[in-house]
Design brief:
Helix content is 41%, strand content 16%. The protein folds into two domains: 183 residues, Glycogen Phosphorylase B (Rossmann fold), CATH 3.40.50; 186 residues, Rossmann fold. It is of the alpha/beta class and 381 residues long.
Length: 381
């Protein structure tokens, strides 16, 4: 069950549903206007049930987040009468709590899918109370499906038995992204680069231009690079409420000529990414890490949703400066290192692509999802 059937859900649900011993139905909402929670059109491959909902955006827990309540959810659950329930966890909290309560009454096992708790995140009093409630619920579920080994550490810390924990590193369909990148490289040789970086190395950020991404660090990072004599260009792919402010900040530092704002690019994303040399994520990042790596880019990041711990292997697939005393200077130093030695950047990009398409791929993620559901089903017998 999801708050919205977002486009990247199609990366793995048809495969999940194709397992011979699983009959999968996805309950979801239509999404929330003005947020990234937008349901994609039905492309087939998995049975979907879209529910009506009430929603609002609130900051009660310390950061803006949608609060969603599905209409008729309990009736639909009773109609379908599933054997196992896989719920989105804290990011769809009201509905997840309703599902858990229904499941307890019906003696149905629940798999709680979560990133756990991000280190250093600050919560309001309400947020801390909700975290305690979520911990109680998590300990009561048949299994936890976790975004990362960081999430696993959280689960064990709050008292969940290790045998009930399944780590499915949260990634995009990395094999599809790898194929898209290869096709974009061929197009690039035919029609030229998507943009003109004037022969300079290119650093790329991809994601929503929103406060939690720590985008205010980007102008300072590029300024620090200039102080090192580095002439790299910064490509920003994405849109959001901070776009205009960012443009003003770059202009105030005299860096406008070094930045390319490409806007949101869904259809042609690969055409842009194959023109870059290094990926940069200065704040909260998750799926963007695997997207960049699948396109053969080393990634420099400043923490993330936990997947950064598994995907960013320092000196091999990129650099993670999470917890650094001066993240701007740390990121600038690593960017300077890689953009000054593009052969090194390319070698790390190859290692990054290999990691997310062979070891921690979308296929591997789906397999662990299946394992968690099968485990929960056995507990329910």
């Amino acid at each position: 069950m999801h708050s919205a059937f977002q486009v990247w859900r199609y990366n793995y649900y048809p495969r999940f549903a194709s397992s011979q011993d699983l009959d999968v139905t996805v309950f979801h909402g239509p999404g929330v206007s003005g947020t990234k929670l937008v349901s994609a059109p039905d492309k087939g491959g998995v049975r979907r049930v879209e529910l009506l909902q009430w929603s609002l955006v609130t900051s009660l827990t310390g950061r803006p987040a949608p609060l969603i309540l599905f209409r008729g959810l309990l009736g639909k659950l009773s109609e379908f009468d599933p054997d196992v329930l896989l719920v989105e966890g804290g990011s769809n909290l009201l509905n997840s709590l309703m599902v858990v309560a229904w499941a307890k009454i019906r003696r149905k096992p629940v798999v709680w899918w979560t990133l756990g708790e991000l280190p250093g995140r600050r919560y309001t009093a309400v947020g801390r109370l909700m975290r305690k409630l979520i911990g109680i619920v998590e300990r009561s579920c048949a299994a936890l499906l976790l975004y990362s080994t960081q999430g696993l550490d959280y689960a064990v810390r709050i008292g969940v038995d290790r045998s009930r924990c399944f780590v499915a590193v949260n990634v995009i369909d990395t094999l599809a992204a790898e194929r898209s990148a290869a096709e974009a490289v061929r197009r690039k040789s035919e029609v030229g680069p998507k943009f003109d970086a004037c022969g300079h190395p290119t650093i790329v950020f991809v994601g929503a231009l929103v406060p939690q991404k720590s985008l205010e660090l980007l102008p300072s990072i590029l300024s620090a690079l200039r102080q090192k004599g580095n002439s790299s260009r910064l490509l920003i792919i994405g849109d959001g409420p901070l776009a205009a402010l960012l443009e003003m900040q770059f202009a105030s530092l005299g860096l406008s000529d070094s930045v390319i704002f490409a806007g949101e690019q869904r259809k042609d994303l690969s055409d842009w990414l194959v023109c870059a040399d290094v990926g940069l994520l200065p704040g909260l990042g998750g799926l963007a890490i695997s997207e960049l790596m699948a396109h053969g880019l080393p990634v420099i990041c400043n923490g993330g949703d936990g997947t950064d711990v598994d995907l960013i292997q320092n000196g091999k697939t990129g650099y993670n400066v999470r917890g650094a005393a001066n993240p701007v200077q740390e990121m600038a130093s690593y960017l300077h290192l890689l953009t000054s030695d593009l052969k090194c950047a390319q070698a790390m990009g190859v290692a990054a692509r290999e990691l997310v398409t062979r070891e921690m791929s979308g296929e591997a993620m789906v397999q662990v999802m299946c394992d968690a559901v099968r485990y929960a089903a056995r507990q329910g017998k």
